Amino acid sequence: MTSDFVHRFERGQSSRTLLLLHGTGGTEDDMVPLGRRIDQKAALLSPRGKVLENGAPRFFRRLAEGVFDEEDVKRRADELAQFVDHAAVEYGIDLNELVAIGYSNGANIAAAMLLLGLAKFRAAILLRAMPPLSSNDVPQLAGYRVLISVGSTDQIVPASEGQRLGDMLREAGAAVTIETQAAGHRLVLNDVTVAQRWVALQ
Ligand code: MLT
Predict the structure, then answer these.
(1) Catalytic residue among 154, 160, 167, 191
(2) Which of 35, 95, 142, 180 has the fewest CB atoms in 10 Å of its CB?
(3) What SS3 state is found at 187?
(4) What is the dihedral of CA 80, 81, 83, 85, to 10 degrees?
(5) pLDDT tens, 161-185?
(6) Contact residues for 201 (Cβ-Cβ < 8 A; gap 6+)
(7) Residue 154 among the catalytic residues
(8) pTM for the full model?
C-alpha cells in the first residue's frame, strides 16, 4: 500500500521521523535537503502529491490560486493519512515522534489533516500555510504543537492567512507559535533557523 504514493524514505539515527510535504510542482526529492538541515538525525518520509495541475504535482485540487476544491482536500487528506499509517508499519515509524514539515501546498495538506482530525503527527511545521477548509467545525487539538512561518510580503499566501490558520488551530487547543519572516513566498534562511530551534525543543 505504501507504493500507493511515490515516495522516498531515508532511515535516521534517532526515533524521530519527518514527514516532508512539498509545494506545488515539487517531488519527493524537493524537501529532503531542507529536512536534513532542520534535523540531521531524523528519518525522512517524503511522498509525492498525486494530483497533477498542468503536470505539476500537488496534494489536492484547486479551482484557482487560493481557492480549493474542499471535497478533494478532505479525500486527499484521508488518503495521505492512510499512506502514513501504512508507511509507519512498513518502516517502523513511531507516530508519537512524527513531525510534519510542509511548504505551501504541502503545508496546506498538513493543516487539512489537523483540521479534519486526521493528523498522524503530533507536531507540524507549516511554512507559508493558509486555512485549506472553510468550516469552523474543528476537532479538539490539545496536545498538538504547530509552528507556522509566514512571509511578511508573501503575495501567494498572505501572512494574514497564516495568522488566521494559527487562530483556528489555537482555538481548537493546539499550541501554536507563529514566526514572521521578512520574506515573500520563497523560504529564507531564517525559516530554517526557527524550524531547527523549534524541532530541537520537541
Ligand atoms: C495551495 O494551492 O495550496 C496554495 O495556493 C499554495 C500553492 O501551492 O501555491
Answers:
(1) 154
(2) 142
(3) coil
(4) 170
(5) 999 999 999 999 999 999 999 999 9
(6) none
(7) yes
(8) 0.97
- Calculate the alpha carbon distances from 154 to 9, 63, 94, 107, 150 in Å: 31, 20, 35, 15, 8
Residue whose C-alpha is closest to residue 21's, from 159, 125, 116, 97 = 125
- Written as nine digits, the cell of 103 is 511548504
Residue 124 has pLDDT above 80, yes or no: yes
Q: What is the DSSP letter of 69?
A: -
Tell me which CATH code domain 2-200 carries. 3.40.50.1820
Label residue 52 exposed, middle or buried (CB < 10 Å: 0-12, 13-18, 19+). exposed
Q: What's residue 136's pLDDT?
A: 86
Residue 3 among the catalytic residues: no
Other beta carbons within 10 Å of 143:
10
The alpha carbon of 67 and the centre of ligand 1 are apart by a number of angstroms equal to 9
pLDDT in tens, 41-82: 999 999 999 999 999 999 999 999 889 999 999 999 999 999
Query: 179: which strand partners?
Result: 149
